[in-house]
Design goal:
heterodimer, A: 147 residues, mainly alpha, Helix Hairpins, 2 domains, 5 helices, 68% helix, elongated, B: 228 residues
């Protein structure tokens, strides 16, 4: 039987690490947004655990009975609002992704970045920013797009 | 190469977090503020659910600002998505099972949502949770019949009235010489439905605001033009 506290904290940090891993490793916008949602869940769990106490009851008086040890209501109140705000932010992020898909026809971050650089260069009437140290992948992609 | 450096970064971050939290004491820290609130909330606020006492009583102003964040997110979502062109294609209606299920679920979800909102000061739940259930009640019919339109005028009217009444209740306390959002109207009997003064009214406003905001945002998302 593993230690409950270790399990809970490990879960919280695990969720945060998985979220950050999703953000830095994946190139798909929707996957990045879902990774942010996972990161948010981990952060909420960590916030709740900040004052976690083994065996503490919920801070609610039922039928006049006051529990001996009650959990801290402050982080619970914070997380309660944070979850709902998270849903709103998730919807906003998804609608932004929808606009990106509509504008460029792709949700791949590398593609989107290339399109945006192309747009900026076209608008300013200059060549695409380039460097002799640019990775080979970028240079071939640039040649393919005819820049 | 980029994947390798990202993986190295993650490994370093994981080690850093592990190093920071290795020396911390888990689950044994005494919650000083929480214990003070737990022992005083029943007399000071009169809500049997101390989380509600914190959300609307001790830090009601924060709750108002968090509602503002939600409002900003919903407004920005509406701005980003824009109006759909009248010629855009719509998804066809769902099958019989989903339509009948949506019809059955709608009254149930409305009742459960309102119950959770109105009992927020007694049981786990409250305006935020009940508001989300209310939003889903109005969103499920849209999933079943994508052709139906939600009246955005009604949604924004409810949202505006709820937000204004939250602030108005807060200002009422100020007219009485108290601080902004001080609970009014006495405390009543602990654990009764009509207790904790103005907290249930505030939570009703929060629930209607959260519900109409999320329902409006979801309807906007589902109304936006699909990209083939």
């Amino acid at each position: 039987m593993p230690d409950t506290g270790l399990l809970l904290y490990g879960g919280a940090f695990g969720l945060i690490l998985i979220g950050i891993a999703g953000i830095v490793l994946s190139a798909h916008l929707v996957r990045i947004i879902f990774a942010v949602a996972l990161l948010e869940a981990g952060a909420n769990l960590l916030l709740l655990l900040a004052t976690w106490h083994q065996g503490a009851a919920a801070p609610i008086i039922v039928a006049g009975r006051v529990p001996d040890l009650m959990a801290d209501p402050v982080p619970q109140a914070l997380v309660l609002t944070a979850i709902v705000i998270g849903v709103g932010i998730l919807a906003l992020a998804l609608s932004l992704a929808l606009r990106v898909q509509r504008a460029y026809g792709t949700l791949d971050m590398h593609e989107v970045r290339r399109h945006m650089e192309q747009d900026i260069a076209d608008e300013a009437g200059i060549d695409m920013p380039s460097s002799s140290h640019a990775p080979a992948a970028v240079q071939t992609a640039r040649q393919e797009s005819g820049a | 190469m980029q994947r390798l450096s990202s993986a190295l970064f993650l490994l370093g971050l994981g080690l850093l977090i592990a190093a920071i939290f290795r020396g911390m004491e888990f689950g044994t820290v005494a919650p000083i503020v929480g214990q003070a609130i737990n022992s005083a909330a029943a007399e000071q606020v009169g809500a049997a659910n101390f989380v509600t006492a914190v959300v609307l009583g001790y830090r009601g102003f924060d709750t108002l600002l968090e509602l503002t964040i939600l409002f900003t997110a919903a407004t920005a979502g509406g701005m980003v998505l824009g109006k759909r062109s009248p010629t855009a294609k719509r998804d066809p209606d769902a099958g019989f099972i989903l339509q009948a299920g949506a019809d059955l679920l709608f009254p149930l979800l409305v009742i459960v949502g309102l119950y959770i909102i109105l009992h927020g000061h007694l049981t786990p739940g409250g305006g935020f949770q009940g508001g989300v259930i209310l939003a889903s009640a109005f969103f499920v019919p849209i999933l079943a019949r994508p052709g139906t339109r939600m009246s955005h005028t009604a949604v924004s009217t409810i949202e505006g009235l709820a937000g204004a009444s939250f602030i108005f209740i807060g200002l009422l306390a100020m007219f009485g010489g108290e601080a902004f959002l001080t609970p009014l109207m006495g405390q009543g009997e602990l654990g009764a439905l009509l207790s904790a003064g103005s907290l249930p009214v505030l939570y009703l406003a929060v629930g209607l605001k959260v519900g109409s905001e999320l329902a409006g945002l979801l309807a906007q998302l589902s109304e936006s033009e699909a990209v083939d």
